[in-house]
Task: structure prediction
Amino acid sequence: MEHKLSKAQIEAKTYVETYKLEKIIGDMLNALVYSKDPHPTVFMIKYLASLAGPSELQENGILIGSQTLQPESQVFKIPAPKSKDSEKVEEIKSHSAEPKNHPKPVPVFPHNSKSLVQKHMPESLWNKLCHIKTKLNHDLHECLTIGLQHPDSIPGIYAADSECYEVFHEVFKPVIEELQQWTSSDKHTTVLNLSHFKCVNCDPIGEIVKSIKVSVDRNIIGFSFPIGLNSSERVEVQQKIQEILDPFLDSSFTRMDDSRAGESEPSLIDLFKDKYSHTDLAKDWPNGRGIFIAEDLSIAINLENHLQFLSKTTNGDLEKVFNKVLYIAGQLNARFEHNNLLGYLTSSPDNIGTGIQASVILRLENVLKKSNSFKFDLLACNIIDGEYIELMTCKTLGVNEEDIFKALANAIEYLVSEEKRLTPKIEEVPEIEESDTRRVEVGGVEENFESNIEEAQMKNVEEVEEERLKKVIDEEQ
Result:
């Protein structure tokens, strides 16, 4: 029998749902547990305060004080209750004295945050930019949301739309320069002609090269980037993307929903959720997201960027995976956000420019016995379990797609050749097959091998018999 809720319970349930309290508290706890802040109460106070505007806080008697976590700092001042008349008088005085653009409190990053933006955004710069919004109505605080929620984010700042890179360039530029080792004088070029991406597959059976993954991230023109999308906008972007992808989605593609993600191995969705599930990038999950999977190409929608094209292989065929992602990206090139200075505009500054992320895993058991220090142009190197090396792209701006391709091809070719050179050679001993008709050459004369064996056996029998008779005669004597 269904339990009927009381009037009070219905009102409470309606209140919680109307103000989305369950989601707010859940998101706050996720962010707190992820950051492991040593001051959980202060963290939660600041988290909740960040959800309200400064004027709303001030109108309700909550004043943001020091931005530090010192115990003696009075973060909030909550006045004692006053009569309605005195509240009205004070409210009139407060608003009349309040400047038109009252400074917003400087965002406070988690104590264990690794973000670069903290050192490139002094309070004076924050006060200068905090009230400015882009044409799509995004402000600087929205760009900092992921950095505030995700302590492991290195940039700490994500663009909510393409205009953010221009409107808030005083914050984005120094972060990009440090991340990419780039200056605005470095000319960025784009190379998408597939004739530039040719190389030899030096390990076609995957004996040494165990995995190659290449992905390209893009955002389509005219829409907020995923961090800036609300629920209805995200669905609109998803529908638009499926419309432009339709000519490429033949019968070889399967639509993979969230429940089937990672059936055989971690998919793009699983990897995204592991990294961003506690942040606003995953809000309203899985609404407006999706992934299309074919044998050698995956296309993800509305994860970190509007689109991510991924191709992978389990041998040394770098040319194949590069051509796979760049072909479809090139066909849709006119639809993507791009400018001459920064190249393709992605949500995160660490992928801006080419939008390419690449990873190559090689088994180099013998190479690693000789050396564990490697240096390659445009690539980072990570040793795994003492016998594997992972090569990863570490620069996407100020270099073009061909530069990255050649860096990977040269590194793979060198490491594969070194591993083969250092692998101990095993000498093969030819097997001797028994055959009635096999003939061997002895002293230049061919003789039947079988007859030689029989002759030897006959001689052995005669010798044994002769020895036996000799022994018998000796005994009789």
In short: DSSP finds 16 helices and twelve strands in the chain. The chain has three domains: 1-69, 112-180, 194-422. Residues 66-99, 437-447 have pLDDT under 50 and may be disordered. Residues 449-476 form the longest helix (28 residues).
